[in-house]
Amino acid sequence: MSKVEKRERRAGMAPKAMWRERYVGGTPEAELPIFEKLAQDLMLVQLRTKKATGAADIARAFQAKTILGLDNARLTFHADLPGDLRAGFAQPGAEYPVIVRLSNASGARRPDFAPDLRSAALRIQVGPDEAHDLLMTNFPVSHARNARELVMFARAMAGANSTPRKAFAWFVKLPMALGWSSAARMRRNLKAGTRRPVRSLALERFWSRTAILWGESGPVRYQLRPATHAPPAPAASRTDPDYLRHELSRRLATTDVVFHLCVQRYVDARRTPIEDGAADWREEDTPVIPVATLTIPRQDTATAEARAAERRVDDLAFNPWNTTEEFRPLGNLNRARKAAYEAGSAHRLGDRFVTPVPRRNTVVGVPVRAGFRLLNRVVPWHRLPSRLGLVNLDALRQALRQDNLIDTDIKQAPPKARPVPPPIDERLRIRRSYDGSHNDLSAPAMGSVGSAFGRNLAPVHRPDLFDTPNPVVVSRELLHRDTFVPARSLNILAAAWIQFQVHDWVDHKRYPFGTKTVEVPLPPGMRWRNTPEGPLEEMMRFAENEGIASIEGTRPPILFANSASHWWDGSEVYGGDETVAMSLREPGGGAELRLDQGHLPSGPNGTPITGFRENWWLGLSIMHTLFAREHNAVCQALRGEYPNMSDDSVYHTARLVISALIAKIHTVEWTPSILATDLIDTALHANWYGPPKNWLTQLGLWLYDTHALTGIPKTLPDHHNVPYSLTEEFVTIYRMHPLIPDDFEIADHPSGRRLENLTLNEIQGAATEAVIRRTGLANSLYSFGIAHPGAVTLHNFPRALQAFERGGELIDLSVVDLVRDRRRGIPRYNDFRAGLHKPLLRRFEDLTSQPETLARLKDVYRTVDEIDTMVGLFAENPPKGFGFSDTAFRLFILMASRRLQSDRFLTVDFRPGIYTPLGMDWVERNGMTSVILRHCPELAAALPRTAGAFTPWRATPRPHP
After folding, report:
1. What's the predicted TM-score (pTM) here?
2. CA-wise closest residue to 96 among 134, 67, 68
3. Are 298 and 375 in the same domain?
4. Does 328 share its domain with 364?
5. What is the structure's pLDDT at 162?
6. 34-38, 471-475, 938-942: lowest mean pLDDT where?
7. Quick check: 32 and 141 in contact, CB under 8 A?
8. Residue pLDDT, tens place only, 538-556
9. pLDDT higher at 232 or 961
10. Which CATH number is 650's domain given?
């Protein structure tokens, strides 16, 4: 033993090396998802308790009933504080304000005379950025050894509000969950803690029951002991349900209530265990040391001021992790508390949600999903009768939710102490933030600008295959457009729309060109100019994406941040930060977006000023102009209906309306146009409005998936146990550049006369706005409405995008797309489809039967497993009526629902109180056709009568030459 350790032992201290924490699963990383699942379970307990008690609101999972809450107590450390206990805020004579909450321990608000434990929570307010939450109960040990036992107990006892139910919980449910010995120990502990009548909480002793770090002294447990001179209390009442509160109020009317804060030092793992909450730290092993005095001053607790203070205290979220690293909590129970208390508090305050799955859905779901897996080996979902196909799609979506949502958030493992989280800006409860933060109020950064892309499949990081086969060869042989292949069921507005949407959803940040580049070797004899005026080179170069360093830090990053928000929030129109958003509004913070004679205002480089303007071309200009005008129309309508609304409120309400309208158009108009089948039309309308109202469909969903009985906007937010984000695979399936033609005819809608023929290069970048201004929005819409986009297939990539200037670099976008997928760890096509529950290909002929394509695939790729994902998606023979592959569609049905389901502004806060009744009506009544006609009513004769605006329009007959 070292001299330091001997000295520490003589002083009664525990050397640091003598204690350590032990993690469930062996590591902090393995333990974390277990605790997150326990947090979900506790939220379900809260719901069950609410239902069982008939309460109007969701209470705390524990300590539901407040006995006393006040914010004017004081904690004073003793002048003779032992030297080794002088750490951080714990200094001799230091005094701090304290918030105190005394409560019953149960998760149900029961009468004070019901058998129960009692709890104390303190918030020691050291300074504006430092506070320490201490949580205690009036029994020295927990009934649960660890977090799992705590949650299993809460689940078993939730709703057990009658003697038969309690007996069933005690003697059947709890032993089944934890075993007979653990259940018996928990019964003994709880019986010992609750059988003693409590006269007054001022006379109770409270124990932490778990350890915390106390600076250099190491682990301690703490407790509150009532002052020895405290006046006695009358006998406990058997009739007054609030007698403890009444007793404290009477006591505080005449005297202070005083407690002593004490600590017990860690000795060793046997006598003072850290991980076992059910173990007592006996005083003969570790003496109690008084360190401070807590004084609750004499006061009248019945005044309006006191009642308001108590309400504020009752709304607080106490958490032992509201502290500093010097005093961080220790042990299994405390580590679980971080996730559990955060979830429970957010659930109680309406900032987080949980959707219980009925037991019948769980039971029926297993054989249904298994049955469809077997059936789909013989008959794919799209060849089934409509009603059966609809249930098949729902089964597939549930399987994808279970298997294909991978959390890429970098977690705190083990958890770290933190300051008390600041209160949420109340304005963010009723409006979208500029950067996408605070959509989920319990996790403000979720989905915001800069948050990581998620994953649907485990990434495959193979640097040795980055250039195999050569992506330039793949592009020239399999993607290059020789002859334009049209998609005859669509118009070019459908192509413009999807780029308009993708710019709202995803944007990988790039390094400035020339600072960090990707290098792609060219095939022998080929040269490439990497800048418009640069020399011919033997290497193709383009800007590398900025990655997020991997957690291990041992390999190149394949985790990337989104420079757009992940939410469906119209950021392509409004911008992704406050500075950009304000610059787009009328001067002086007006509600309307700035327009110049109905067009977007020009920027310094010729491209307009709008929320997102990269890769700018006429299709984007049409969409941005149209929806900027629509925003201003909503603003005018809101002002007319609600003349007292401020400009700021009008702007943010209009943004909500436009974002929801865009989401609706994409869900029920654009997607059914590109996936043109009755089944998909029904399924997507069900996403927004709910399923068909026939008894067989309703009964099937009631048995199998109750949550699908209504449209998603009528449900609660649900992330399906993985924080919301868009994914790298989602980016891959939306690579639909073949939709864009290389040349365009601009026509006059009244006469049908051709105005001019233009190439893609002549309607993109700085040249775009001159075209739309001389053509006009109506003629631009008409010209795109009567023309077909390209089909999403091989040999149809726009030639103009294979030599495309962007940000000073000259790129082949088809090569960039291939290389990006490889470097981002997207599995190659065969593994990609297998990961989405499709059978592996065994030979090239399983992918295509077209002789030329088959020959080129075999020429480019050595094996079917090498086929690039984008190539495979383009080559795949899609279901009848589909504009893209079934493999891509599988990710679509997962992520399209998720974009709606996770967003509180499209679920729980999609309501008149947030949007206004006018705003809700605007979203309900409008679609793409009505938006076009509001701003270009002269196009009424051209728009389809019985189909959507993304299908081919009626062309005006041209005069004879």
Report:
1. 0.92
2. 134
3. no
4. no
5. 66
6. 34-38
7. no
8. 999 999 999 987 655 445 5
9. 232
10. 1.10.640.10
Question: 292 and 387 share a domain?
Answer: no
Look at residue 5 and tell me whether its pLDDT is greater than 60: no
**Domain boundaries, position 179:** 3-348
Q: Are residues 322 and 369 in the same domain?
A: no
Burial of 79 (0-12, 13-18, 19+ CB in 10 A): exposed
CA distance 433 to 577: 8
Rounded Cα–Cα distance for residues 440 and 446 (Å)? 7
Sign of dihedral through CA atoms 809, 812, 817, 820?
negative
Confidence check: pLDDT of 16 > 80: no
* 3-class secondary structure, 307: helix
Any idea which residue has 């971080």 for tokens? 338
Last residue of a domain, one of 323, 348, 373: 348
Q: State how far the alpha carbon of 357 is from the alpha carbons of 60, 472, 704, in Å.
A: 21, 49, 10
Domain final position from 317, 348, 379: 348
Rounded Cα distance, 172 and 156, in Å: 9
**How big is the chain by its Cα radius of gyration, in Å?**
32
Residues with catalytic annotation?
A: 503
**Cα separation values, 61 from 151, 153, 173, Å:** 10, 12, 19
Angle between helices 332-348 and 147-157 (to 10 degrees): 40
Q: What is the pLDDT of residues 199-236, one digit of tens each?
A: 999 999 999 999 999 999 999 999 999 998 999 999 99
- 249: left (phi > 0), else alpha (psi -120 to 50), else beta? alpha
Whether 405 maps to a domain, the answer reads: yes
Statement to judge: residues 232 and 292 lie in one domain: yes
Q: Is the residue at 515 inside a domain? A: no
Write out the H or E segment, with its range, that includes residue 136. Answer: strand 130-137
Give the integer Cα–Cα distance in Å for 536 and 527: 6
Tell me: the pLDDT tens digits for 346-401? 999 999 999 998 989 989 989 989 999 999 999 999 999 888 888 899 999 999 99
**What Cα–Cα distance (Å) separates residue 498 from each residue in 250, 495, 504, 735, 801?**
68, 6, 10, 10, 17
Q: Are residues 254 and 339 in the same domain?
A: yes
Q: Are residues 685 and 731 in the same domain?
A: yes
Residues 543-600: tens digit of each pLDDT: 999 998 765 544 556 899 999 999 999 999 999 999 999 999 999 889 999 999 999 9
Residues with Cβ within 8 Å of residue 506, at least 6 apart in sequence: 453, 562, 564, 566, 726, 730, 731, 734
User: How large is the angle between the packed helices 768-775 and 777-785, nearest 10 degrees?
Assistant: 100
Going by C-alpha positions, the residue among 206, 182, 320, 189 that lies closest to residue 257 is 206
Peptide bond into 469 cis (omega under 30): yes
pLDDT at 961 over 80: no
Distance CA 249, CA 890 (A): 62
Count the domains in the chain.
2
CA dihedral 95, 101, 102, 106 (to 10 degrees): -140
- The answer to the question of residue 521 being in a domain is no
Residue found under tokens 């060869």: 473
525 domain-assigned: no
**Based on the domain organization, do 338 and 430 belong to the same domain?**
no
8 A C-beta contact, residue 527 and residue 588 = no
Backbone φ, ψ for residue 212 (5° rounding)? -130, 160
CATH code: domain of residue 161: 2.40.180.10
